[in-house]
Amino acid sequence: MTIDWLRDLFIIIFAIIATGVLLFIGFMTISLYRRAKLALDAILDTAEMVRAISSFVKNEVSNTRPLVQAMTIIQGIREGVDIINRLFRNKR
Questions:
Q1: Which of 22, 50, 67, 92 has the smallest CB count inside 10 Å?
Q2: Structure confidence at residue 91 (pLDDT)
Q3: What is the C-alpha separation between 72 and 58, in angstroms, rounded?
Q4: CA quadruple 11, 12, 17, 21: dihedral, nearest 10
Q5: 2-34: buried (b, 16+ CB within 10 Å) or exposed (e) per residue?
Q6: What does pTM read for this prediction?
Q7: What is the rounded distance in angstroms from the CA atom of residue 67 to the CA atom of residue 85?
């Protein structure tokens, strides 16, 4: 065994180990990508669901706006009547 032969042996062993490490890193990267893609798809589905719910709530709130306005007017009239009643009660 000469030094040249040992050098070539170490180069071959290093090449085999480096190939194995690169294959392992490649498999791990693909696995991580698939998991991240599943998580991102779930997040996108959740965002779409939140968008649909907020759109529904917005439509329902806009449908109740006339009722809220009417209730506000009634409450204002009631408060006005209560204030007038308190003014006349204090004078007695």
A1: 92
A2: 59
A3: 20
A4: 80
A5: eeeeeeeeeeeeeeeeeeeeeeeeeeeeeeeee
A6: 0.47
A7: 27
Determine the residue type at 41: D
| Cα–Cα distance measured from residue 35 to residue 74, given in angstroms and rounded to the nearest whole number | 57
Give the residue ranges of the chain where pLDDT is below 70: 90-92
Q: What is the dihedral of CA 18, 19, 23, 26, to 10 degrees?
A: 60
Query: What integer best gives the mean pLDDT of the chain?
Result: 89
Residue-level length of the chain: 92
